[in-house]
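EI: anyone free to look at a 204-residue chain?
SC: sure, send it
EI:
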Amino acid sequence: MQAIYEGPGGQAWKDSKVQIYGWANFSGNISTSHPSNKSENGNFPLVYDIRPNRMELNQIVLYVERLPDENQTDHIDWGFRVSALYGLDYRFTFSRGWFSDQLLKHNSYYGFDTPMVYFDLYIPYIFQGMNITIGRIISEPDIEAQLAPNNLMATHSLLYGFDDYCHEGIFTTTKLNAQWTLQLGIDGGTDVAIWQDDPGRQVT
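SC: here you go
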């Protein structure tokens, strides 16, 4: 972004508050487990490095985003985020009907996903500020995160391999006071695209 700011139209980029950034994340493991004739996933249920004794490209991620200004109380502001992910970790972020053929039909170890595609609207006049998010998000109620900057380790807890990952719907985060924040949302189901005919597509 610094290079863009110092180039042609740099001030316009600053004024837009749109940022483009990302990262590449690799990991490796040494394991006493071995692949079998049926599967390469000798480390499973360990996630994400399910294949033993390998270096893996976990994720290359690109963000395009604008964050709403939530440090003010005098005007409504807006934002958005579009994320693109390529690597082994897509196997754990995809939703059925959302680029899912890579895994469900072809069992590809490396693939593409967009775990976050959403629009934000910040309204400072509701309690001490409410953010309304509409789109596809990474699940809110969790203790870990899929994206590398939020993790110290390449591996995750066993339950994390079975939790739902992405939700599509409308979600609100409201600051009630200095001690309490309330999150409410409605989504189309667990790891299922809203247009997908699937038992998991249930309003939640």
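EI: The beta strands are 18-28, 55-66, 77-87, 111-113, 117-123, 130-138, 166-175, 181-187.
SC: 👍
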